[in-house]
UniProtKB/TrEMBL annotation:
The keyword Transmembrane applies. The chain crosses the membrane at residues 20-42. The lineage of its organism: Bacteria, Bacillati, Bacillota, Bacilli, Bacillales. This is Magnesium transporter MgtE intracellular domain-containing protein. The keyword Membrane applies.
């Protein structure tokens, strides 16, 4: 009896499940498939419509909200990464601009230094030309005054200055001055002039 009742109970459970399967679940799935096909043919996005309706149902709404929160978080992270990248690029641009400014300053300093050196060169050339003119005037003076007056002045000069003057006067003026020097100074000046002449020839 017990086994018979158990078998009848199992059969009743199986038949109820089969009824549920045949009369409810399969027709429901079939109806859903047909609806999905119809909506798709009519050009409606079934998933978008489902999402819109699902947001109106409290339980499903929570699921969609979680989805949206995850998407927003991902979006914010992306924005943060892009902002960080922009800041890095701005910092690099600022660094490059600073380097350009430094190079511009270096170029400007170099240009100023070049101009200063050129000015010094021009001043030195002007001084050299002035000294040349002054020296020519001195030579003319020694060629103009008498050898008797020039000889004592020569002996009082530094040897280098005396040799420079004697080396540039006319030969006849030089001979006259040398005649008016005492023998010792004449011999010394002759030796210095010879040495200076040899140095000039060696340099050439």
């Amino acid at each position: 009896m017990g086994k018979k009742n158990e078998l009848e109970g199992n059969q009743n459970t199986t038949s109820k499940f089969q009824k549920f399967l045949y009369w409810f679940l399969i027709p429901l799935l079939f109806a859903l498939a047909v609806m999905l096909l119809v909506f798709t043919l009519l050009g409606h996005n079934v998933f978008q419509v489902t999402k819109e309706y699902g947001q109106r149902i409290p339980i499903l709404s929570a699921l969609f909200t979680e989805d949206q929160n995850a998407s927003m978080e991902e979006f914010e992270n992306k924005v943060f990464e892009l902002e960080a990248d922009i800041k890095d690029r701005e910092a690099r641009i600022t660094q490059l601009e600073g380097q350009l400014e430094t190079k511009d300053l270096d170029i400007e300093r170099a240009q100023l230094e070049k101009e200063r050196l050129q000015q010094e060169i021009d001043e030195l050339r002007a001084m050299r030309d002035e000294n040349k003119r002054a020296f020519k005037d001195i030579i003319k003076t020694y060629e103009t005054i008498s050898a008797k007056k020039a000889a004592p002045i020569i002996t009082e000069m530094e040897d280098s200055e005396a040799v420079r003057i004697l080396a540039n006067v006319k030969p006849d003026t030089l001979a006259s001055i040398m005649e008016n020097l005492d023998p010792a100074n004449a011999a010394r000046m002759t030796g210095l002039l010879t040495a200076a002449k040899d140095n000039e020839d060696g340099a050439e």
